[in-house]
Amino acid sequence: MKIADDPNALARILIAPALIYIGAVIGVPFILSLWFSVSDVTVSSAAGKYVGLENFRSAMGDPSFRRALRNTFLFAVASQVIVVILATTLAVALQKDFRGKWIVRLLILLPWVAPVSLGSIGWLWILDSIYSVINYGLYHWFHVCGPQPGMTACPVWLGQPTLAMASIIGVQVWRTLPLATVINLGGLSSIPQDIHDAASIDGAGFFRTMFQITIPLVLPILLVAVLFGFVFAFTDMIVVWVLTRGGPYDMTQVLASLAFFKGIDGGDLAGASAIALFLFPVLAAAAILLLRLARRAEVI
Amino acid sequence: MSAREKAAKAGHRTLITLFALFAAFPFAWMLITAFKKTNDLLDPNSFPFGYPKGPTLENLRVLFEETLFVRWIGNTVFVGVIVVIITLLLAVPAGYALARLSGTFGEQLGIGIFLTYLVPPTILFIPLAKVVSTLHLQDNLWALVLTYPSFTIPFCTWLMMGFFKAIPKDIEEAAMVDGMSRLGAFTRVVLPMSVAGLLTVVIFTFTLVMQEFVYGLTFINSGRNFTVGVPSFLVRGDVYFWGSLMGACFIASVPIAFLYNLFVDRFIAGFTVGAVKG
């Protein structure tokens, strides 16, 4: 039999290039980063030497690392909790037919389909310390803050620690809401109409149907959306890098951005690898959960 | 219509409008800002949603004539096209093999490949920076060309696997009865039927390339080699050319967003029901 006809040989030949490429650009760097994290390699040194768990120890002892670890969890959990609530609301609202639905859908998807770095730069200008359009509204329309004597000063959105954290969480919500909404919408439309009919014949109102029928039925697919959102938020640094560069005083630093500043700006590849590897256990747990969930929901 | 129904309808409308405003506002704001004169921009008391001192095209002129914006778009297209070619060459055959040829092992391998999509650039960029500098590719667009397939291949393999599974097996079997080899049936019968799937791969790969930021930031330093995802050239120190910057962001994001929008349902299907059982 010729190779072109032998399914097993053909399968190997067709899959091999993709597997080799993935191995070279994901597998090899991953193993390298494991080695970096237990070595003292820097940008300029040719090869480092083994230092054991020293990098992890020094990371744990570093207050800015502990803050980044906390911030990463806060950023990912808070943004996804808000996303779940908003995405469910929005998906239910979008399920109804109304005029101009396609344009609403298009607008709502924009933050997801446009490059995040550019959208975030838009927010950087909206949240500017002097020319913020939000502050213009607060001063000129609502008169709650302003530069006049006797008025409270307007918020410096990205300059005050709590506000800066709230701002990056807000922008992350803005950016992941479309994905969660559309996944959710898919889940909602897979509920058979009979169930809704039966509920309404039995006299269930909107909220009762919502909490006792709709939400339990879309829960598995909702969780898939949340897990993806969580993984993206947990491992990402774009929003933080563009909006605050981790500032003020490292108060909004997350693990990924800290690793970037340490490794790429600072040249400490070993320390940065150790920091980035802290992302991995959470990532692996999310992936396992995702697979089990998907199998149960029969979606993957 | 009862008063209650009317109230519900008004509430529904308000809710939808608020969400749409929240989603689209930054882009509307980019568009408005792009045509503002500097003395409007830098006056906190000037009315923000109009042009009290008149609109101007100066920001766009600066963007196209005095910055390397056109070059960045060219760079992005260059990287995008080559990454698309690499992705098609590797992901399409792999997707076919996983869909047809390798049984339950193939199914597990497929899930494994999809999971590598979850490995984020932020875990890999540090060792990759070292690899790139060892290969003397820093500040070179080829560094991006070589690394971007790390996220386009897994996703597109998964996507094509789902696509090929939806094509009935009988079609290839009939072609093989007619004397074609398995490979011949794939290239001459299945591929021509899969134009829609291939097009989806092209669009996704291209948008993923445009979305990427971390590798671009890590490997590229000089303004000459930026892609549009990294327009930090317009942010010179603390001097922001807001008008030009917002124009650049709008031009680079909105057209690709519309294109992507046409395919977004398929993309979501790739996340959730990518390879429907069977």
What would you say this structure looks like, in words?
The complex is a heterodimer of chains A (300) and B (278). Chain A is mostly helical. The mean pLDDT of chain A is 87. Helices cover 72% and strands 0% of the residues of chain A. Chain A has a single domain, classed as MetI-like (MetI-like fold, Orthogonal Bundle). Chain B is an all-alpha fold. Chain B has two domains: 56 residues, no CATH class; 206 residues, MetI-like (MetI-like fold), CATH 1.10.3720.10. Chain B has a two-stranded antiparallel sheet. In chain B, strand 1 and strand 2 form a beta hairpin. Chain B is globular and about 75 Å long. Chains A and B meet through helix 1, helix 3, helix 4, helix 5 and helix 6 of A and helix 1, helix 4, helix 5, helix 6 and helix 8 of B.
Number of helices of chain B: 13
Low-confidence stretches of chain A are none
Assign the CATH topology of chain A.
MetI-like fold
- The total number of structural domains of chain B is 2
Enumerate how many helices of chain A there are, as a single number: 13
Gyration radius over CA of chain B: 24 Å
CATH topology grouping of the largest domain in chain B: MetI-like fold
Structural class of chain B: mainly alpha
Sheet with the most strands, sense and barrel status of chain B: 2 strands, antiparallel
Q: Structural class, from secondary structure content of chain A?
A: mainly alpha
Strand content of chain B: under 5%
Terminal-residue CA separation of chain B: 48 Å
Identify the quaternary structure here: heterodimer
Termini distance of chain A?
A: 35 Å
The SSE string of chain B, one letter per element, is: HHHHHHHHHHHHEEH
| Outline type of chain A | flat
CATH architecture of the largest domain in chain B: Orthogonal Bundle
What portion of residues of chain A belong to β-strands?
A: under 5%
